[in-house]
Each structure stands twice: as structure tokens, then as C-alpha cells.
Design goal:
two-stranded antiparallel ribbon, two-stranded antiparallel sheet, 6 strands, 5% strand
């Protein structure tokens, strides 16, 4: 391999690595601002002086993490529960996608049903875990949005309060809708990362083994 080829390969690897890091950081940022709504949405922490004068003040990060009543405390707890569930959903998503790619293919001659019982259970179990994770996360996401909305509304600072709140929710909504669409299919497994791609057949190397076994059984 020439020096120039080595430089090109290193450059491509470095570029790919940078893209992956940026993608992961963006996902983390998106989940943080979309779940920790009480923490990241600008709110009013007004101060009242001894003579009764009210001074409007933007809540600091520290203010947002120190609740003033039980309802705010519960809201912050729900925020962090939602954060943990979304991170768990991402792990389930990656595991399911890797499992599908290990056993299944988009095109082929042999359907999923031809897999041996152990492999089939592995595929269906990864899909079931992702399905449960999606339903639980989706329910908590709705609850978190409602509770956070009530708390944020009570500390209205200006138009930026509502605009930031809505923007942060819209950050994560497409992921939730995509996950719900994916779990609707229990026989043809839809890919999460590739739009409108379904894993409906056995992977090529496993397909060859199954076809060979079928030939042997047919000749007996």
C-alpha cells in the first residue's frame, strides 16, 4: 500500500470517527434538553424586596435543581426518570438493530420462520424488549411533558419560556413517533436506522445452511 493510500485511509477513518462523535453528542444533547425540561427551559425566579418590589430574574441552573415545593421535586424526579428511560431505549434500539443484522436480511429466499428456535427466540426477544421500552418511555414522555408544562407555566418568564419548551419537545418527538411505527410490525422487522427497510428474510450465510438442511431432509 502506498503512502498516499495510507494517508487517505487514515483521513477517512478520522472523518468517520468525527462524524460518529458529533452524532452521539447531538443525540445526548437532544435527550438532555427534551427530558430535563424543568432544568433547561428558561423560567422566572422573581425576588421580592422588603418594600414589596418584585424583581424578575432568570432562574440559574442551581435554582432549577432546587425545588420550592413537593410538586416541583416530583417534576424533577420525573425529568430524570424520563432521561434514564430514553437512554435505555437507545441501548435497546442498538441491541435490536445489531441482532436483526446478525440473523436477518432485507432480501432472500428463506423467511424468518425458517430460523432455528434459539435464533428465532433471540430475534423476537430483542424486538419485544424494544417494544416494551418504547411503550414505557412513550408513556413517561407524555407524563413528563404535562408535569413539566405545569411547572414551567407557573414560572413564566416571557415568550422564550414557551418557545424553548415547545422546541425541546419537538427535538425528541420524531424519535418517539419512529419507535412507535417500528413496533407496530411483529412479523416483518422494520429497521430503526434505515427508513422503510424491513428485515424479512434469513441472512445469506444462515440461509445457505437452512437450504442445505432442507435438501438433505428432502432426499431422505
Amino acid at each position: 500500500m502506498s503512502e498516499q493510500s495510507k494517508v487517505v485511509n487514515v483521513s477517512e477513518l478520522f472523518s468517520s470517527f468525527n462524524q460518529s462523535v458529533i452524532c452521539v453528542l447531538f443525540k445526548i444533547y437532544r435527550v438532555l434538553v427534551s427530558t430535563l425540561l424543568i432544568v433547561f427551559v428558561p423560567k422566572n425566579c422573581s425576588l421580592t424586596s422588603d418594600n414589596g418590589t418584585v424583581t424578575y430574574k432568570l432562574c440559574t441552573f442551581s435554582d432549577n435543581l432546587h425545588p420550592h415545593n413537593r410538586f416541583e421535586f416530583g417534576g424533577i424526579v420525573v425529568n430524570f426518570v424520563a432521561l434514564a428511560l430514553f437512554l435505555g431505549l437507545h441501548i435497546a434500539e442498538e441491541w435490536r438493530e445489531q441482532t436483526l443484522q446478525s440473523y436477518l436480511a432485507i432480501h432472500g429466499e428463506v423467511s424468518v420462520d425458517a430460523l432455528d428456535e434459539k435464533s428465532k427466540k433471540h430475534v423476537f426477544f430483542s424486538h419485544k424488549v424494544y417494544k416494551v421500552a418504547t411503550l414505557v418511555t412513550g408513556a413517561v414522555f407524555i407524563g413528563n411533558t404535562i408535569i413539566s408544562g405545569i411547572i414551567v407555566h407557573g414560572k413564566y418568564l416571557g415568550d422564550e419560556t414557551y418557545s424553548t419548551f415547545v422546541t425541546n419537545i419537538l427535538f425528541i418527538t420524531p424519535q418517539v413517533l419512529k419507535a412507535i411505527d417500528v413496533i407496530r410490525h411483529d412479523t416483518a422487522f422494520q429497521s430503526i436506522k434505515k427508513s422503510k427497510v424491513f428485515y424479512s428474510f434469513v441472512k445469506d450465510d444462515l440461509q445457505e445452511v437452512i437450504l442445505e438442511q432442507d435438501k438433505k431432509e428432502g432426499s431422505v
